[in-house]
Input
Amino acid sequence: MTRNDSLYSTLIDKKLVPVIKIADADDSEALADALVTGGLSVAEVTFRTSCAAEAIGRMKDSRPGMFVGAGTVLRAAQVDEAVHAGADFIVSPGFDRGVVERCIELGVPVVPGCVTPTEIGYAVSYGLGTVKFFPASQFGGPATLKALAAPFAGISFIPTGGIDMSNLRSYTSLQCVLAVGGSFMASEKLIAQKAWGEIAARTRAAITEAATTVRI
Output
């Protein structure tokens, strides 16, 4: 099994991807420990702060078995920066051909944002099997995902945006959903407060919630 296969298996198993905005790279190792303690070995670090690449590298160094991706990747040059830092996968908020093509060139998994049939069609044309559905709540949530899944039976979705413990099951119950992304397990505020125990506890609770979902 390749590392990419292992990443996919982890997403299928846990159904969760913490979306991280980290302002201080010195918090990287403790954050990685908190997530792993809570039961998750995957995270998406968004390129919304200047220390994102460093944080990815430090999380990977401290927890080599962890899958750490780069999120909010908008340009092909950021793909190179993220991969150089050690990113295992790339996530973008929309569909950018330059980002997708660079990821394919480098052989790194990419999950582009797609909320319309046209955008999903672009992903299909590049041979991609998983797309990000963002912002999920603003674009119709589970009802829209069900409608999109019908004509795109081979595509799986990672919905993100407006998802928390109150509506987590409405997404993880869908067969078309590979995993759910969100900051509710490790919010920017909790990270700034260095609330590692709380992050671990929220991660455990989310795993339990997702694991007890009945697929429909």
The radius of gyration is 16 Å. Strands lie at 16-20, 42-46, 67-71, 89-91, 110-111, 130-133, 156-159, 180-182. DSSP finds ten helices and eight strands in the chain. Residues 196-211 form the longest helix (16 residues).
